[in-house]
Amino acid sequence: MIREAMPDDVPVILAMIGELAAYERVPEAAQATEPQLKEALFGPQPAAFALIAEDAGEPVGFALWFRNFSTWTGTHGVYLEDLYVRPEARGGGHGKALLAALARICVARGYQRFEWSVLDWNEPSIGFYRSIGARPMDEWTVFRLTGDALHTLADTAAANGA
């Protein structure tokens, strides 16, 4: 069963974020707190949304997503930030059900794109995504600005009056 996340789900979502970070070999990177996640998902202006996969009433996976926007199509889309299914529940169709639920959201709302990133070494996930018809955007490279570089650029903008 797939359902929308509720405020009471925040602790289990946060636990699964930690499990995902460990799977992706960077457990120290999961630094979000319950108050941050609760505000992002359920505050007055939610910045993100989540779906929960349940098996026998127990949460076994989640998808956390937010809306993006394409200037080319003039429509919003869905960016899937995290998709995670606990190891004991993998192979039970939960990941595909979460993706299908997000695809339904896209279609129902007229969104024309559903996108996400996957680590190059994560062959099981890459194979799974290809099996549902997803294609890699090989001609694109993801860039990220964090830490000192982010602050340096911000300082440059401030110095230039931006």
How does this structure look, described?
The protein has helices spanning 10-23, 34-42, 94-109, 123-131, 147-159; strands at residues 2-4, 49-55, 58-70, 75-85, 114-116. The protein is of the alpha+beta class and 162 residues long. It has a 5-stranded mixed β-sheet with strand order 1-2-3-4-5, sandwiched between helices. Strand 4 (75-85), helix 3 (94-109) and strand 5 form a beta-alpha-beta unit. The radius of gyration is 17 Å and the shape is globular. The relative contact order is 0.12.
Characteristic key phrases:
162 residues; five-stranded mixed sheet
Q: Between the first and last Cα atoms, what is the distance in angstroms?
A: 48 Å
Give the overall form: globular
Unreliable residue stretches: none
How many strands, which pairing sense, and closed or not: the largest β-sheet?
A: 5 strands, mixed
| Average residue-wise pLDDT | 94
Order of helices and strands: EHHEEEHEHH
CA radius of gyration? 17 Å
- Percent in strands: 15-25%
Total strands: the figure is 5
Give the helix/strand class.
alpha+beta
Helix content: 25-40%
Strand order in the sheet with the most strands: 1-2-3-4-5
Counting DSSP H or I runs of 4 or more residues, the number of helices is 5
The gist of it:
This protein is 38% helix and 23% strand.
Secondary structure layout plus pairing:
Elements: E1 2-4, H1 10-23, H2 34-42, E2 49-55, E3 58-70, E4 75-85, H3 94-109, E5 114-116, H4 123-131, H5 147-159
Parallel strand pairs: 4-5
Antiparallel strand pairs: 1-2, 2-3, 3-4
